[in-house]
Amino acid sequence: MPCLDISTNVNLDGLESDSIFSELTKAVSEIVEKPETFIMILLKGSVALTFGGNKEPAALAEIVSMGAINSEVKRKLIVTIGSILQNKLSIPRTRFVLKVFDAGRKSSKL
Question: What domains are there in the chain, each with its CATH number?
Fold first, then answer.
């Protein structure tokens, strides 16, 4: 189950977030080729966060997925999620950092 966790210093109070969740879910689903029903999105606003020494709008995100992560997928995730945050929250793509983790598939012995 891919999980995208976004923290931003932007105040989200009063913001209609359904369209943000919908766009992020669809984008992650398409890029990592997993069903939307498996995608988890967390969005936290008003986080104490600075970037480049100032408090202008910025975001830090992490995505964890089991498999399906390679350099092309990473690039697409960074560009697409950055564009969504820029369009929906006015966070410049140059003030967005995405950490990408592939948890891999480990076999377990029962």
Answer: 3-102 (3.30.429.10)
